[in-house]
Structure prediction request, 313 residues.
Amino acid sequence: MIRYSTRIGLARVLAFACVPLLCLSAPAQADLELWASGQISAHFDGYTGEYLGDLFGTAHTYGFAFGPDGNVYVSDGGGADRILRYNPKTLQLIDVFIAPGNGPVDAQRGLVFGPDGNLYVCGLASDNVVRYDGHTGQYLDVFATDGLDAPYGLRFGSNGDLYVSSAYSDSVLRYDGQTGQLVDTLTAPGSLDGPSDLLFGPDGLLYVSSYLTGSVVRFDPVTGDFVDAFVQSGSGGLNWPVGLAFGPDGNLYVADERRVQNEILRYDGVTGVYLGVFASGGDHPTFLAFVPEPGSLLLLAGGVLLLGRKRRA
Prediction:
């Protein structure tokens, strides 16, 4: 345990701890962006919602994921079924990471890197989740297919299991994260219709955008029980919700794919109450992501603050 002989010693340590926090927070605030995939992808200032321009230069982008190498992998599903790799800082194309025809995936949508470092991709028309080597892009196998009917989005839970939205069966399917075997099915008749994106919230619950009811619903990911409609149907004029993201302010951001102004709406992260339009731009926004993720910024700041909590003994 660190010992301090005087108050001056403690003050110096606290001052030292605060300096990195100040240095980190300033550029982080300036650099934080909200990215939205779509027929024309776009990025926005993560705090003000100001439109910053188009992304990736390719049409029909149906999702993206950040890889272990720090690059961003983009699902170009507009008839190409390929994964493109970009430098997230320069937004320059690096290469075609997965070429068309590499694996039995048809009309690819959401993608995510798993705990094993490999890349998992939804095949909307092939009703499967296909796995690729996360370093080489080599096709490995069909990881999951049982029960899937038009899979759209996918996330790994903290328990290592894979959760996949199945749009045409109005359900979310959970698969063993190691074997790909179906574990159970999450449904909410009357509340979940055409599920698209999904993510885990700060409360540990699973949030799912319900495309055809214009709402966002929640499930307990452990029991599979339906919790509630967190964002009520049509709240704030929500029409066709797809992408979901929690922002640095703790609020929920929802991409409305068919809204006339291509808008991203914001809802209170605790109550689900509509707060207004956050951003507008691009074309038919689908998946969302804050870049860098707010969680990583908090983790960084938390580590610095922890330093200042050491006490004299």
